[in-house]
């Protein structure tokens, strides 16, 4: 879809403009917001992406989850699907699919009662999401409808309106450094 391609191009360019220090500072601010959410506080299991290429850094969320005694798992791409591996140490991660950090060892988990911290390229205030185009999260979430979906993004990733398709599965909550967007009906 041409419109999504252009949005990806625009957001990737904006991410490139960010300094490492900015990404780190904003990621800390987003983590602070996430830690206050009742969904995070209550969750025993966290499914989090391993950040790459100036995405919101998930390391701080993962570290806080461990401190709070929560279990964490991160995805590995296997064919057309994602498999989540329990993460106990960042040394389990090595560059995998498209250079994205993935677990190279560990135990595969199948948690249905989890909070998923999902990435995305762009979102809108209605919680619609433009992903990276692989459909991995949509396919995974279609099979696991009870997982609570939380997306983290920088403010510049929230656009007025993003194109949607029937197969898109939106996050119920989006957290940026300055705002929390919620849709209870998703």
TrEMBL record:
GO terms for molecular function: 5-formyltetrahydrofolate cyclo-ligase activity. Keywords: ATP-binding, Ligase, Magnesium, Metal-binding, Nucleotide-binding. Its cofactor is Mg(2+). It is an enzyme of class 6 (ligase). Its EC number is 6.3.3.2. It catalyses: (6S)-5-formyl-5,6,7,8-tetrahydrofolate + ATP = (6R)-5,10-methenyltetrahydrofolate + ADP + phosphate. NCBIfam families: MTHFS_bact. Belongs to the 5-formyltetrahydrofolate cyclo-ligase family. This is 5-formyltetrahydrofolate cyclo-ligase. It comes from Blautia faecis.
């Amino acid at each position: 879809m041409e419109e999504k391609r252009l949005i990806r191009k625009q957001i990737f360019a904006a991410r490139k403009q960010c300094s490492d220090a900015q990404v780190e500072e904003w990621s800390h601010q987003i983590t602070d917001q996430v830690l206050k959410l009742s969904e995070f506080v209550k969750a025993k299991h966290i499914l989090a992406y391993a950040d790459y290429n100036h995405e919101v850094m998930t390391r701080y969320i993962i570290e806080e989850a461990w401190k709070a005694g929560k279990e964490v798992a991160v995805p590995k791409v296997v064919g057309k699907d994602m498999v989540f591996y329990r993460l106990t140490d960042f040394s389990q991660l090595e560059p995998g699919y498209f250079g994205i950090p993935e677990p190279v060892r560990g135990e595969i988990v199948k948690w249905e009662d989890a909070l998923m911290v999902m990435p995305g390229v762009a979102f809108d205030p209605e919680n619609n999401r433009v992903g990276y185009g692989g459909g991995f999260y949509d396919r995974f979430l279609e099979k696991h409808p009870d997982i609570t979906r939380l997306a983290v993004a920088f403010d510049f990733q929230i656009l007025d309106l993003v194109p949607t398709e029937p197969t898109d599965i939106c996050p119920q909550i989006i957290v940026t450094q300055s705002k929390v967007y919620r849709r209870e009906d998703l």
